[in-house]
Amino acid sequence: MRLRVDKRVAGAVVALLTSALTTSGCILPLPDFGRRPAAAVSPEAGWRLCPEIAADLLGKAPSGYTFECKTVQVPQNWHKPEDGQTFDIEVIRARATDQRDRIGALMVNPGGPGASGVDLAAYLTLGLPAEITRRFDIVGFDPRGVARSTPVDCYTDADLDATFGSEPDPVTQEEFDEVLALTKKMADGCKAKYGDRLGLFATEQAARDMEAIRLSLGEGKMNYLGYSYGTLLGAVYAQLFPQNIRAMVLDGAVDPLQTSIQSSESQAMGFERAFDNFAAWCAKNKSQCPIDGDARAVVEKLMQEADTNPVGNPDGRKATAGWIFWGVVSSLYTQARWPDLGQALADLQDGKSEAIFALADSYADRNANGEYTNLFDANAAVNCADDGKSPSVEEVRKLQSEWREKYPLFGAPLAVGQLTCSVWPAQRDPYPTGKAEGAPPILVVGTKGDPATPYEQTQKLADMLGVGVVLTWDGEGHTAYPETRCINKHVNDFLINLTVPPPGTVCPPQ
């Protein structure tokens, strides 16, 4: 299973606790990008009240907000819109009842790819600073193929269980062939269900959908907050429609110029660094990390023991090396989860697996009934559609051996994860890379301890866009806003007043 680039955004705001609720709504006439939208298309047409989405996600809909939803219809293939085939894109708008001095709509995306922007918008009503929610509508959308927007749904729960539980570093050829066979079975199942449409879930297509959403909102300029993969989506939009941006914040930068191999190796490096930071913290905080021994040695031993004697779980699963690995990965996305990992490892040493499964299931979007969302179906469809040159199976096998030496805990699994696109049987549609000529300054936020989108990518994205301005957080975890007062000040000033932080601005950890 290929690592996705995000799990959580905005600190305590958990963006991927997706709901099973499916919504429906009025279909807007499709905007024509060759001329002004037809006069009959009203920005207020098609909205319906949908507080039930926020209530399902948060327990109850937050007071002080209205929640409205609409469905925007877009071409399946923006390169050939004349064929008339369309996808439905679900959009939500959260508006504070005390809104004043409104600036416009702030479109948000949590990344993934495969995460729900509808869910994120609901969560951010509790997570964003009040000065933002009072000035902007918070608009989220599920990108094509995701959650409520014509979802890609072709992986079975059983196959996903088998994937997450499989050996993360299959050393023997027999083990490797088993992982390869399962990966190919799942990919072929997607091809059998979706055929040629499987290649239409690419990032460039989704970026063009964003322009359709902007027009449907009646917004003259785009305000955008994208996390993780959402930075790539925003960067592609900025290249295609630079003149339509008012303010854009890209937090947890993806370097669009890197190949899929470079991306996976960058993540291997990032997760090794984040785990080292966790291990150092663990050694100094035994009351919160009650494991017996050095953290890295403990994880390696537990995974080795799991190969022959995995700890059982009340739901019937066994805590194989695969489940342990994904539990570790999940906990490194935010420093707030470090104590959870420490306790989960200590519990495993005592023969109890519930805590490590809770972490792994959080990453996998698996509920207590063993059911998955379509997060990883969409993740594969988007990643592989974007990947113009996937490594061959033979190259993956070679990288697995090389990265095992360079990145002992995460290298081999991240190499093996590239098999998904190596065998993916769909047309590729790589996104454009280049300058966002004509765009205003774009704020690119990077976190020094980010495991999933390592800090080194921050300046690279800013440089590629040509108008990028870097804001650094000297903190841990994946993404920075709204984590600290310093980060909030600079991002808020940028979104509200278009004030660019001074060059070289670094915010402290707290």
Shape: globular
Strand content: 5-15%
> What letter string, H or E per element, gives the SSE order?
EHEEEHHEHHHEHEHHEEHHHHHHHEHEHE
Largest sheet: 10 strands, mixed
Number of DSSP-assigned strands: 12
Helix share bin: 40-55%
Radius of gyration: 22 Å
Task: Give the terminus-to-terminus CA distance.
Answer: 34 Å
Low-confidence stretches: 4-41
> For the largest beta sheet, what order do the strands appear in spatially?
1-2-3-5-4-6-7-10-11-12
**Classification by helices and strands:** alpha/beta
Number of helices: 18
Mean pLDDT: 92
Describe the overall structure.
The chain has 510 residues and is of the alpha/beta class. Helices cover 41% and strands 14% of the residues. It is built from 18 helices and twelve strands. The strands form two sheets. Strands 1-2-3-5-4-6-7-10-11-12 form a ten-stranded mixed β-sheet, sandwiched between helices. Helix 7 links the parallel strand 6 and strand 7. The longest helix is centred in the middle third of the chain and has 25 residues. The radius of gyration is 22 Å and the shape is globular. About 7% of the residues have low confidence.
Which key terms come to mind for this protein?
510 residues, single chain, two-stranded antiparallel ribbon, alpha/beta, 10-stranded mixed beta sheet
Q: What's the gist of this structure?
A:
The protein is of the alpha/beta class. The chain has helices at residues 51-58, 117-127, 130-133, 157-165, 173-194, 203-217, 229-240, 260-284, 295-306, 321-331, 338-349, 354-364, 375-386, 393-406, 411-416, 419-422, 456-465, 485-497, and strands at 48-49, 65-75, 86-96, 104-109, 136-141, 222-227, 245-251, 311-312, 318-319, 442-449, 468-476, 506-507.
